[in-house]
User: Fold these one by one.
Assistant:
Number 1:
Amino acid sequence: MMKEGIDLEEEKREILRRYRGLLRVCHRSKTRADRARIRKAFEVAAEAHKDMRRKSGEPYIYHPLAVAKIAAEEIGLDTTSIVCALLHDTVEDTEITLDDIQNLFGKRERVIIDGLTKISGVSNYENSSDQAENFRKMLLTLSDDVRVILIKLADRLHNMRTLDHMKREKQLKIASETQFMYAPLAHRLGLYNIKTELEDLSLKFKDPETYDSIVSKLQKTQAVRTRFINAFTLPIRRALDKFGFKYEIKSRTKSIYSIWNKIVKKGVPFEEIYDVFAIRVILDTQMETEKSDCWRVYSIVTDFYQPSPERLRDWISIPKSSGYESLHTTVMSPSGKWVEVQIRSVRMDEMAEKGFAAHWKYKDSPETPEGKLDKWLNQVRDVLENPEDNAIDFIDNFKLSLFSEEIYVFTPNGDLKTLPVGATALDFAFHIHSQIGSQCIGAKVNFKLVPLSHKLRSGDQVEILTSKKQRPKEDWLSIVITASARQKIRDALREEKKLIADDGKDMLRRKLGGLKVEFNSKNIDEFVKKFDTATATELYYRIAKGRIDLTRLKGFVVDGNRIKFETKAEVLPETNKQTSQDKVVITTPGKNETLLIGDEQQRVDFTLATCCNPIPGDEVFGFITVNEGIKIHRTNCPNAQLLMSKYAYRVIKARWNNAETVEFEVGLKFSGTDDVGIVQNITNIISTDMNVNMRAISFEAKDGIFQGKVVVLVHDTMHLSSLMDKLKAVDGVLTVDRIESEFQ
Ligand code: MN
């Protein structure tokens, strides 16, 4: 049978060949029942997709077969996963329904395929916020069954391998998404091979020229590397043979993507990195002796080559939370080059390559990798269910925790706790228990007293000191780095606000009682409207805080049981009538109230950032620093963009209230023609005409041009601009500009 030049009989034979190829790698599906389920899934999928073709023109069924093969062979998944991988596109693209799946296979299969269908349904997004949101949803489906995500990764990997046939813009979109979402996910799940391949393939489509040039340079330098490796490993091989080890030595260069990263992002030339590689010694040994065997090999390697003590990494005593176990050392080769040697057992190697999926062969390990995976999934779920962070933040947090390594610290009882790098004593306290976190006043790290903000290091023993009087503080948000601690602090602050609001509620109740007016929702609404608060709680809170002064309440009438504010009421007794809710007046010592800082209730000091020297009238924002409280920056400060994008959660709203009589320093620079008396004119205007105080002044004249700088004290931008106008009018002055930053 021939159709449009395609030999359909031959195609059928090829489909069967590929199916048998799949069966050969289904190591976990040994029983007759397992094989029957896989066969049935294959037949259902083949029938459902029989009239469909891929962009390449190949029969569509090649794709589910390939995805199932990746799931079985490269991730090591079970029969249910293989069945679902075979069926993964049926519900979306064919007549088959979820009910059919459930009837033919079962409830579990239905749940997984439902998850897979949903994921691909939401994968059409335009901007990065949608993308992040969809990724969030996708991870939420993890809570149903983690196999959804593993099969999705297999699906993505096969799509990346066959991306050639897609249109250019689709290639770019899929490649970016892979790099942004899927590679980090594979990394976090411990699927290092898949992660590397996804990254390399993304690069291949995003920057084909560079990719090809790296590939060809790697090929050209292959011989040099092989010679070096042979010479380097020869003495090690001899010694291992002598001691009767069964082993394999592998070597691998950096991935194309990581070479590209170095070249493009760090500007290192290829010639300096092509020979950076790791030598891996893989021991075929029993699980009971694998650790001691690894250390024996370590001592053999370091007998020949001098190790760098700072670069010893022992992940066999304490594996990474992704399940990675290995012993790494970096040694000096005779030619003076550092070489990383990784020592591990076959079991560890499989774990390293396939991640959690490799666990099935080694079920007796004390803490199962599945248990650890569950732990991780719980953490992800914590973040996912956090309604405060928007989706973009989530991706940032997620990526952060994907790439950062972890630290291991101990409780006074010797329990091991895993935290991300950069975690503080306060993170640790919240990690133990939210109440311990809330009441934390300090900690002892290795028996030494440290503040809450103390950054922990691996191996620290941490004891938390608590006090019943302690309450979570707003600035704690800048001390913690874990999402869960941040959330717990936010919850506690909200709780605190509620308690304060309760007082305000009582105050209002008494006030209304005094007016012989009922405390009911109509009357409360009248207040809410009058004071323009978002909610009644907000109203009570402001009353309790004294920002709405009930004793000075004016401009209302009592009509029976109702209180009504007259439309032409007098000035509101509120401190800041124009501010929207949640604005607070912040005072700084020695200055009047001049700045309104948003969102929270505490009175905090602030300082003005020296990088942009804001003055009243400037557009400003507050930034919560780690050691110096709130700093006020201008929104056009050179540092603003970085602060806002990297530490968005530490940025708070701020705006100037009124200038009063406070004075602020501001720098001005001048240029002009060098004219006798010009300095005199300028200083006269500043100090006499405008009555402005001068702090410092410097002039420099060269070749008939003078440049000058002066630091003056002004009230606000209006004051400043009228001063500048006057100065510009001086004969001989060419330019007058504000110095935006002291580094200019
Ligand atoms: Mn697919």
Number 2:
Amino acid sequence: MQVDVLLGLQWGDEGKGKLVDVMTPEYDVIARFQGGPNAGHTLEFNNIKHITHNIPSGVFREDSINIIGNGVVLDPIIFMQEIDEVKALNVELGSRLKISRKAHLIMPTHRVLDAASEAAKGKTKIGSTLKGIGPAYMDKTGRNGLRVGDIESPDFLDKYKFLTNKHLQILKQYDFEFDLADYEAGWMEGIEAIKSFELVNGEYLINQYLEEGKTVLGEGAQGSMLDIDFGSYPYVTSSNTICAGACIGLGLAPQKIGRVIGVFKAYCTRVGSGPFPTELEGEMGEALREYGAEYGATTGRPRRCGWLDIPALKYSIMLSGVTELNMTKSDVLTHFDTLRVCTAYKINGKQTRELPFDINQPVEPVYREMPVWKEDISKMRSKEELPVEMLDYLKFIESEVNIPVSVISVGPDREQFIPLK
Ligand code: GDP
Ligand code: IMO
Ligand code: MG
């Protein structure tokens, strides 16, 4: 068996959580492979709205096994809150949730370091979710990090104190006030919560599952344009969000990757700082934000909104070897008379379909305008019902990127989607 991977192709928040929940019945195992609680994946079913941060979005389907992979950075406090929220919905996790021993822990001082570093950057701040992601991955690559498996070691507390002291030394460089005591108490409780789950050698387990014929779906966080190597650096997150991240973050050989499902919104959003060529400022952007309810699932920040960006989409598809697309939120466009889609960029007067090295330089989008359907598509459930303008938009995107759209999502609820193939 191979692992299918579902990941975001834009700047995050494409609707990955909803689609993972929709697809979970087709899989035995759902595995998160990178990122941490900077992610906010929204699921809606039976009038319940739920947001997952650290844990996979498969948890609500009773038979699914869910794995937090080694590529994830795990915050014990947020993890514990998430577990409580899931339990409050009468969902039994028990042995259905497993955590890789090689996943790294986000420490209280990582969060402080994130906040202090962002505050010191002033106008050039990344717009981080301030969950400690950057500092935790820095300790991982700097070979200092604390891992989930360390919890089982008798000198765990010593390791924790040693690294905390190191962070406190670094924090002296910043003019930044903080109080660790509260954080630390909650963090230690969170460590106990983690201990109550099965800690696994995830790389062995997942490969064993494949040998046994189990079906596995990798759940990506963030989006390809936030990838540490290929995103709009330095306005990115600190992990590899593209498909290769699933190999690293789960312990999979490249040939173990099967379908690669790329999720994109029918328009674009971005939360945090950084370049966004098709961003709409003013009334149009605000209208997209209001109709699309574009506010961050993790931080509540208003998301910046703009038109679909085909060069960026093609770039993401290339980097991950996307085999099929899922388009979300086209229902939001119903409110407009016409839509625009960026087919190329003009940089220094020259037209190109490639993302430049320095995407922070002025980039002028070249647009194609298309009519928007008038019908409310949110209640439609089959391709046959879809308005011709919607089908034209789909056909246009498919012809530009040469990949089929296999599912469109027409609302936030689990039931609101249309399989196309
Ligand atoms: P994720 O991080 O990729 O899982 O996406 P988020 O949950 O951060 O943001 C997506 C938002 O759009 C959430 O509020 C979802 O409930 C909502 N959503 C997902 N798919 C659709 C859709 O097709 N139409 C509409 N209107 N909302 C959607
Ligand atoms: P999901 O999984 C949207 C953005 C932040 C910031 C940059 C770096 O829900 O799609 P970080 O906290 O990683 O240091 O922030 O990345 N960002 C996201 N934007 N969706 C996300 O996750 C994001 N995770 C991080 O806003 O610009
Ligand atoms: Mg999100």
